[in-house]
């Protein structure tokens, strides 16, 4: 292709030339053509499987029909009704899982927020060994989730685990405190996930802090603002958009966390930590009830739209358009 | 062809290129598959050399020995089938096992041979993705008659529809710590659950030593125990059609209550056991903290033989008379374990079924079967092995042999998998309650069992 030809094509693509091959196309459509390399894989990898998942949720796909899954019997909304109707046979398990997932994701996010922001504020200043400390802070985040799960399972073992030994030594509790069963299992899970995920908020906050110009702080100091006032009036408002994004993404991530509860509690977890992804996994891959598992996935997707909307709104904050 | 890549992209050109791509993507794999299938050896004569693939359970207690055994099998197979070999991949959890099964069944593509535990064979059978062995196929590997008869009861839904070849056994028996029993002044291993509770109480001091242990947080132990007690009581966990769950029946409630009462009422097991999995119970026995380990397979031996209880433990048949009774009730069975073990199945979509049969023949040869015992401490399933190697019927292995003979098959229902999970959920819930408060009520137990039975029923309908 000649340079002249290439230039002409770019001009046409940009909608600058009124004649040529694309002359009958509106310039508005051009960005969509340019997006197609990413849109097509998105449709193939995400949207088509989602449609399949929805279709499967309307079928009785199980071990008897898996070899000929396209002919699995159509059961309509049975799985949805079994799980969502208040008196449905699966309602206690389904609503219990939704409750467990919501509490787990919201509680974890609430805990990691101050920890992450605090660490970012600390390491945004000029302190000795800052580079080293910044690297160390990321350690929990880069440890594989299943390793983290095993580690915390050992920590929370009744009687022999570090948690019970420590509580007994500090006279804060009995050596026979149960963390892996019963109501405390939720807090064990939250603690383990807080430890593993707070660097995410730390990274987001640190990145946002580094975009604030130093002269803003200088001006505030000249005006006699206290550190607390500077944080409340300058730092927090300026990092809020990024933090909002971080909170939304964090909530979604925790809600979808499967590996940690699975490794810590196995396929028959206590009710308190029977989170939705675990319930879906057990139904789909342990008991072969794939239709039900798909229905639960669809409902989970709908629930996750809430923080997703928050995420989208957060992503638009600061957008001039 | 070059004109297709001309710089000017029109709708027609785009459709031409895309159409060719689509045809290629659909057609080429089909063509290659057709070529591959046409090269598969026929059912007569020697199969064409190929490399088989196996998907087998990982022996976490003997990983090196398992690799050694697979090398021996491979050497023998390659010797008997020049030019052929096999590769294998392992799974370490039930989740991996079922996920692979689902994927292979749905895609109609996967390993030539799958290994399953006995209670997953019904599920595998339901998928229809495995070959039903004909008499000719059985004869190719030595005939049905070479196997330990109870093992074949879990090979398929009926004798003429067997899909799974037994490769090793995992009989269940009662294990006791001889020193603890002697110290408690108990001279006879209990034959009834009343005797068991009394003996266990004698060995319990409530701090360091306990009569027994439980593993209610395990994925399998709860249904093992509940099945045992329900069967002895004359009940069932699912009706004979496999369409109706009976987890909330009187027999099921009584069975669950009896097991949970080891912690709550008789206090022969520590409350900490509520968070135990099977491996925790094995460790507790290894440290000499518990006197009995109920319904235990040979898997614990690897740990115990290198622990303070080495040489101090003994396998015997377990109690068969329900608690509070002097003999079996009407309909009750003297079960003390179910038919258990590992099975190899032949994937229906295998391109080398003839060669796979040759491999199965090697695996069930008496010499290789003996190596299952020697290297992996698993019970062989081929009768000739027991005749050739007398140590397989002596000492603890003698008791396990008796246990295998007296084992009862679990119902061959595809829904047995969901049932296992539901029993575990109910037991786990009440065990947690006991751990925290020290007790539970029968109404709590009944309510938990009713709930899980409803869930089971929803998955059956």
Quick take:
Chain A has 321 residues and is mainly alpha-helical.
Written description of the protein model:
In chain A, helix 4 (91-124) packs parallel to helix 9, helix 4 packs antiparallel against helix 11 (227-255) and helix 13 packs antiparallel against helix 14 (290-316). Mean pLDDT of chain A is 88; it is low at 10-18. Chain A has one domain (92-316): MetI-like fold (Orthogonal Bundle). Chain A has helices at residues 3-13, 30-57, 78-84, 91-124, 130-137, 139-142, 145-155, 162-169, 184-209, 214-222, 227-255, 259-265, 276-286, 290-316. Chain A has 321 residues and is mainly alpha-helical. Chain B is of the alpha/beta class and 461 residues long. Chain B folds into two domains: 51-171 and 339-405, D-Maltodextrin-Binding Protein, domain 2 (3-Layer(aba) Sandwich), CATH 3.40.190.10; 173-337 and 413-460, Periplasmic binding protein-like II (D-Maltodextrin-Binding Protein, domain 2), CATH 3.40.190.10. In chain B, helix 2 (63-80) packs across helix 13 (353-363), helix 2 runs antiparallel to helix 14 and helix 9 (221-233) packs across helix 17. Chain B starts with 10 loop residues before the first helix and ends with a helix.
Q: Tell me what portion of residues of chain A adopts beta-strand conformation.
A: under 5%
How far apart lie the N and C ends of chain B?
Answer: 57 Å
Largest beta-sheet details of chain B: 5 strands, mixed
What's the architecture of chain A, going by CATH? Orthogonal Bundle
Please count the helical segments of chain B. Answer: 18
Q: How many domains make up the coordinates of chain A? A: 1
Order of helices and strands of chain A: HHHHHHHHHHHHHH
Overall geometry of chain B:
globular
**Second rung of CATH, namely the architecture of the largest domain in chain B:** 3-Layer(aba) Sandwich
């Amino acid at each position: 292709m000649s340079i002249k030809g290439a230039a002409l094509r770019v001009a046409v693509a940009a909608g600058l030339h009124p004649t040529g091959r694309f002359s009958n196309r509106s310039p508005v459509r051009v960005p969509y053509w340019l997006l197609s390399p990413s849109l097509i894989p998105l449709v193939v990898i995400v949207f088509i499987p989602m449609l399949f998942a929805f279709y499967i949720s309307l079928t009785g796909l199980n071990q008897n029909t898996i070899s000929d899954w396209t002919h699995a019997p159509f059961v309509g909304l049975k799985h949805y009704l079994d799980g969502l109707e208040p008196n449905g046979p699966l309602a206690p398990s389904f609503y219990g899982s939704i409750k467990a997932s919501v509490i787990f994701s919201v509680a974890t996010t609430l805990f990691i927020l101050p920890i992450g922001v605090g660490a970012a504020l600390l390491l945004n200043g000029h302190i000795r060994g800052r580079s080293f400390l910044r690297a160390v802070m990321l350690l929990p985040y880069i440890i594989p989730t299943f390793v983290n799960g095993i580690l915390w399972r050992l920590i929370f073992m009744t009687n022999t685990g570090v948690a019970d030994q420590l509580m007994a030594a500090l006279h804060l509790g009995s050596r026979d405190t149960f963390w892996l069963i019963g109501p405390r299992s939720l807090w064990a899970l939250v603690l383990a996930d807080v430890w593993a995920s707070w660097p995410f908020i730390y990274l987001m906050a640190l990145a946002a802090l580094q975009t604030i110009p130093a002269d803003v702080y200088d001006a505030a100091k000249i005006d006699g603002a206290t550190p607390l006032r500077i944080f409340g009036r300058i730092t927090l408002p300026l990092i809020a958009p990024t933090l909002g994004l971080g909170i939304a993404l964090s909530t979604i991530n925790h809600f979808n966390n499967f590996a940690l509860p699975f490794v810590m509690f196995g396929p028959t977890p206590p009710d308190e930590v029977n989170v939705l992804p675990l319930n879906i996994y057990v139904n789909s891959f342990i008991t072969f009830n794939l239709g039900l598992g798909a229905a639960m996935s669809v409902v989970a997707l709908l629930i996750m739209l809430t923080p997703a909307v928050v995420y989208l709104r957060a992503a638009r904050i600061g957008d001039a358009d | 062809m070059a004109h297709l890549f001309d710089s000017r992209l029109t709708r027609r050109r785009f459709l031409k290129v895309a159409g060719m791509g689509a045809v290629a993507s659909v057609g080429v794999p089909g063509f290659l598959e057709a070529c591959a299938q046409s090269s598969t050896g026929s059912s007569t004569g020697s199969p064409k050399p190929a490399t088989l693939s196996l998907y087998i359970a990982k022996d976490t207690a003997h990983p090196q020995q398992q690799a050694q055994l697979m090398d021996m099998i491979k050497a023998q197979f390659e010797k008997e089938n020049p030019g052929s070999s096999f590769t294998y991949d392992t799974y370490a959890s039930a989740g991996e096992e079922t996920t692979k099964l689902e994927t292979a069944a749905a895609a109609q593509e996967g390993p030539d041979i799958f290994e399953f535990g006995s209670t997953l064979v019904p599920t595998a059978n339901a998928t229809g993705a495995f070959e039903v062995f004909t008499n000719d196929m059985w004869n190719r590997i030595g005939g049905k008659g070479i196997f330990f008869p109870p093992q074949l009861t879990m090979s398929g839904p009926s004798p003429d529809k067997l899909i799974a070849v037994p490769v090793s056994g995992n009989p269940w028996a009662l294990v006791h710590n001889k020193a603890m029993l002697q110290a408690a002044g108990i001279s006879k291993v209990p034959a009834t659950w009343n005797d068991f509770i009394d003996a266990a109480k004698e060995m319990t001091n409530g701090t360091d030593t306990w009569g027994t242990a439980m593993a209610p947080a395990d994925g399998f132990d709860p249904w093992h125990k509940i099945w045992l007690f329900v069967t002895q009581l004359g009940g069932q966990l699912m009706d004979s059609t496999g369409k109706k769950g009976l987890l909330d029946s009187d027999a099921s409630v009584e069975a669950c209550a009896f097991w949970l009462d080891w912690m709550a009422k008789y206090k022969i097991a520590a409350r900490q056991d509520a968070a135990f999995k099977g491996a925790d119970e094995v460790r507790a026995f290894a440290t000499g903290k518990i006197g009995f380990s109920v319904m235990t397979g040979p898997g614990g031996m690897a740990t115990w033989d290198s622990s303070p209880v080495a040489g101090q433990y003994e396998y015997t048949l377990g109690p068969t008379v329900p608690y509070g009774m002097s003999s079996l009730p009407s309909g009750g069975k003297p079960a003390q374990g179910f038919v258990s073990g590992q099975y190899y199945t032949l994937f229906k979509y295998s391109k080398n079924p003839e060669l796979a049969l040759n491999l199965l023949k090697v695996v069930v040869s008496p010499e290789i079967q003996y190596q299952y015992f020697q290297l992996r401490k698993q019970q062989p399933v081929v009768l000739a092995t027991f005749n050739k190697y007398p140590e397989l019927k002596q000492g603890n292995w003698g008791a396990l042999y008796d246990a295998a003979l007296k084992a009862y098959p679990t119902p061959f229902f595809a829904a047995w998998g969901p049932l296992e999970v539901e029993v575990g959920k109910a037991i786990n819930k009440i065990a947690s309650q006991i751990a925290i408060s020290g007790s539970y009520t029968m109404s709590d137990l009944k309510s938990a069992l009713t709930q899980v039975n409803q869930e089971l029923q929803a998955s059956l309908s």
